[in-house]
Each structure stands twice: as C-alpha cells, then as structure tokens.
Write a structure and sequence with these properties.
alpha/beta; about 350 residues; six-stranded parallel beta sheet; elongated; single chain; eight-stranded antiparallel barrel; Rossmann fold; Cyclophilin; 8 helices; 14 strands
Length: about 350
C-alpha cells in the first residue's frame, strides 16, 4: 500500500516513460506497449450500486473501464487488460464499501469506450487533448446527504479519465471530506490529485491517498481495508456496535472531524447531551474550546496526554478542548477521546459547530 501527497508525484511524470496496463495509460506514446496484467480474480462481493438509497453519509464513487466499454466477443485478454468485470478500481471500490458501509456509485458515460485497449487509449487521449467532459449516464441522488466521499479512478494518460472531471463539476463536493484511491502503472498518481483538486477546489481532499500498481490491485484487499480503518471508517457493517456508538462527529463549514470516545463516564456524559449546536472559541495557539450545557463527571477519566487530535475536558472551567497541536499535561485536564478522521481540520474550525453521534 502506498499513500502519497500529490506533490510527491510531480517528478514521477518526468521520470516515467510509460504508465500502461490495468486501467492506466502512457503519457505520450501513441502506440502503448501491451499490458502483462493477468485477468483479475474475483473480489469480495459488492452490492448493486445504488447511491442515495441507504441513508448512509458515505458515498463511494468510482470510474473503471469495464463498466464503461462496449463489450466485444473477440477481446484479447492476453494483449490488453481484461475488459470483463471486475476491474481494478471496481475491486478497490467494493472493498472500501464493505469497510465503510457506504453507498456505491459507478461513474458511467453515455457513450461507452471501445473494448480494445489501444482503441480505448486513443479515445482517452483525444478527450484529454480536447479537454472534453463526457456526458454521464446517471447522477447521484440527494448528494447533500453525504458528508464523506471516497473517489476511485485509474491513472489515464498521467491524469484521470475526463469523465471523472465531469462528475466533479456536476456534483458540488464543497465542504465534504474526500478520500482518493487509484490504480495505476509506472506513472503513479502523476497529475491526478492536482486535476481533482482543481475540479473540486472547495472539497476537503485528504492527503492520505491509497494507490497501488495495477498488477497488485487484486491482492490489495487487506491493504485498502487497513487504509480505510486508519482513516476512522473501518469495520463497515461488522464494526463493534459499542465502538460505533461512541464516535461523535463535529461539523462546521470547513468539514467534519470524527472522534472516537473512550469509555469514561465523562465521555458518556458528553455523548448523552448530543446533539449540540454551540460556538467554538480559540484558546491559546493549540486548541479550540466549547462549553457543553452540563458538567462532565471526571471520576474515572484518564488524564489527557498527547498532542494534536486529542479531545479533552478541563474540569475547572467546564469546557471541552479540541487540540490541534501539542500541549502540556495538567492535573485537571481529562481525556475524552481522539480524532480518527479530519483531525487536521481542527485548526481552521471557527464559528458555529454541530456535534452529534456519528452515524
């Protein structure tokens, strides 16, 4: 598993001469070499894509070639990647969905691509040159219900399929937390993160990105599920119910921060007062604070130690503290939990916030 910030891949575009195979394409070569990728194995089963129907706050949107191609009986799976489902990105999306319990949404074009890989690359390159926006066959229903979007795609021509840009421009992801996962060849992420950021400038695009080589995609179930879990979304439908019930979401104009509460009485007291809509205040240079309506019982709460991401309670003042930098231990400062998602956003938090039990 590899997770890279977009800037680390500027050099990859100049050092790599080709990025073909799987669902990727070379940068400039008009006659891309044949892929040696074997036909993928069957992934964990995925549910029928049906965005907007399950009441989930998580959307797993993805583009993959097999679902956007004209199927031909004489497709040569030896000299080109298999166009038959499941494709690399589809497999990854299915595992993300399993782990998060989110809604799947395949990004499909109205004018399918050829099932011949070389012909597909030719059209993809033409669309790139024309800065085209292929028309999409379906739209996400009730996008407002989602506050988190996992977005999957292949590296095509050192970037993204142009249909992905259509999706981003037609669906306003402003304020939503966006996590990227990508299947690629030797070109890595190339300019894909930059292009996505340009198309969705107001989205909260995480620097934690899952990417894998096309030949590794079929064997990446453990890695991508571990990545999802590290982001704080792990477990899907099998997550321990007690743990799920002890997560809270702090929402503000800049995004959402999810905290995993500990099992102290103080944390339980805070949870029992939710939902809350309060004003967050700046204090010092490392924390934000707010005041819950009622005091918290700290009898069995551990003292707070650590740094950024800590959720704590300062008993003398009765305020909840959201740390975004290191702090000194204090005999009256008690730990409530830690950020498992969006912790990097706390420093920019301001104004009115809403706190509720995480779904």
């Amino acid at each position: 598993m590899r997770r890279w910030p977009a800037l680390l891949f500027a050099a990859a575009m100049t050092l790599s001469l080709a990025a073909c195979g799987g669902e990727t394409a070379p940068a400039e070569d008009p006659a891309p070499p044949a892929s040696t990728e074997p036909e993928t194995t069957e992934p964990a089963e995925t549910s029928e894509p049906a965005a907007g129907t399950a009441g989930s706050r998580i959307l797993v949107a993805y583009f993959f070639w097999a679902d956007n191609a004209v199927l031909a009986e004489d497709v040569d799976v030896v000299t080109s990647p298999s166009v038959a489902a499941p494709g690399n990105v589809q497999q990854l999306a299915g595992w993300v969905q399993e782990e998060t319990g989110g809604d799947l949404f395949p990004i499909r074009v109205t004018d399918p691509y050829p099932s011949d890989w070389d012909d597909c690359l030719d059209r993809a390159n033409q669309e790139r040159g024309d800065d085209a926006r292929p028309e999409l066959a379906e739209q996400v229903e009730n996008l407002d219900q989602y506050d988190t979007v996992f977005l999957g795609y292949p590296n095509w021509w050192y970037g993204v399929p142009m249909a992905l840009l259509t999706f981003l421009e037609e669906n306003d992801l402003s304020g939503k937390d966006v996590y990227l996962f990508c299947s690629h060849g030797t070109g890595g992420l190339a300019r894909s993160v930059e292009l996505i950021t340009e198309a969705a400038p107001e989205a909260n695009i995480s620097e934690s990105i899952f990417d894998c080589y096309e030949e590794d995609a079929a064997a990446s179930e453990t890695d991508i599920k571990a990545w999802v879990s590290e982001l704080g979304f792990g477990g899907g439908e099998t997550m321990d119910d007690t743990q799920t019930e002890r997560q809270i979401a702090v929402r503000f104009d800049g995004g959402t921060v999810v905290y995993q509460l500990n099992d102290s009485t103080a944390a339980e007291d805070l949870l029992s007062q939710l939902p809350l809509t309060v004003e967050v205040e700046d204090y010092s240079t490392n924390e934000k604070i707010f005041y819950p309506p009622e005091a918290l019982d700290t009898a069995d709460a551990p003292l707070a130690e650590g740094g950024a991401g800590m959720l704590a309670y300062y008993a003398p003042w009765g305020d909840v503290v959201l740390f975004y930098d290191s702090f000194h231990a204090n005999s009256a400062l008690y730990e409530l939990g830690e950020a498992v998602s969006g912790g990097e956003l706390v420093g920019g938090m301001s104004g009115t916030i809403t706190i509720e039990a995480a779904p």
